[in-house]
Specification:
With about 220 residues, this protein is an alpha/beta fold. It is about 40% helix and about 20% strand. The chain has a single domain (about 10-215), classed as Rossmann fold (3-Layer(aba) Sandwich), CATH 3.40.50. The protein has a six-stranded parallel sheet, with helices on both faces. Helix 5 links the parallel strand 5 and strand 6 (about 185-190). Helix 3 (about 70-95) packs across helix 4 (about 110-120).
Amino acid sequence: MARPPAAITTPLPTVLWFHGFRADALAHAAELERCARAGFLAVGIDAVGHGARTDSTIADRIARDGGAMPLMLEQVEQTVHELPALLQRLEADDDADLSSLSVVGISMGAFLVYRAIAAGLSLRSAIALLGSPAWPSATSAHHSPERFRDLALLSITAEADVSVPPAAVVHFHADLDERYGETLMRRHDVLRGAGHLLGANDWAHAMSLTHAWLVHHGT
């Protein structure tokens, strides 16, 4: 967790940051500090099975199930179910302003962002990087477009991403535009030529877009 460096009016606009598969909250310490300097209470979330509660059976389960997706979606769902209790604690103990709540997620974390929105998490803004709103399950976020209607949503994809191809995001944003009309509150940016593992320049650009979106829409 990172807090603004100077005493300012509380409660604080809050951003939750969701990491990628087999990473942890500490991977985004620099991004959390940057958000804190902009006035946010910035909270890195260890997803279920990650970080301090790493699941030692992950490798075996991936091999058994024929890939990471089933396990990842299970952990996404479990983490989403934890969020209401976490938010209550942040509001009570850490001056979080839940009326100014934003979320950011990378890869698995972006799946988590889309799923949390579909599950009804009340947000000011959301940024999903290198993830998808569609997966082969009834919980897939694309089944709940109404939850995205009035949300400031930025999706960032990588043009050459073979791990999470951008087509589902393209289709989802097109569907939202068709249903509810185009708006400056909804945007899809594509990192041209980039793959799922971003180089330094693409990462810096994605973080600049993310930070600008948070400052503009999340406070």
